[in-house]
Please model this.
Amino acid sequence: MFALLKRLTNLGVVSSTMRKPRAYPNVSQGFARDRRNLCKSCNEVVGGFNRNLRKYGKEYAN
Model:
């Protein structure tokens, strides 16, 4: 129990993380970038769907 309490109150971890903060990616214009990426992905899916519809639609039309 004493070892657990000592481990929980060890503040040496805090100083090691404060010295080297995590590098976060640039999030400026995040919503606009997400919208562009989502539109691009949606257009790729729709394009593939239309391509397959044209290719396989001819087989079922006859």
